[in-house]
Amino acid sequence: MAEKLIVYTTPNCSACDRAVAELTADGVDFEERNVMKNKQWYDEALKYAITVPILIQPDGKIEYGWKGNIGCAIF
Questions:
Q1: pLDDT tens digits for the chain (75 residues)?
Q2: Computed from CA positions of residues 9, 60, 62, 30, in that sequence, does the dihedral angle turn out positive or negative?
């Protein structure tokens, strides 16, 4: 299991930008993984979904999108 929240994102994704901004403002400890900057993160994200943001909670719970917004395709 992850030790902190992991957030898979892409550039120019408004849902990803909102998720990162709100999590930061709320003081949440998280790791942002921009899938366009790292092939391993891209491959990991595709195991969960074809859209971002994808949030992996420390307990393993997976959330897709941000507050009702699916986000952007990653392929």
A1: 568 999 999 999 999 999 999 999 999 999 999 999 999 999 999 999 999 999 999 999 999 999 988 889 997
A2: negative
Tokens representing residue 51 in the block: 């859209």
Q: List own/partner pairs for 43-50 with CB under 8 A and 24 or more apart.
A: 44/8, 45/8, 45/74, 46/74, 46/75, 48/8, 50/74, 50/75
| CATH C-level class of 5-73 | alpha beta
Q: Where are the domains of the chain?
A: 5-73
Q: Which amino acid is at 35?
A: V
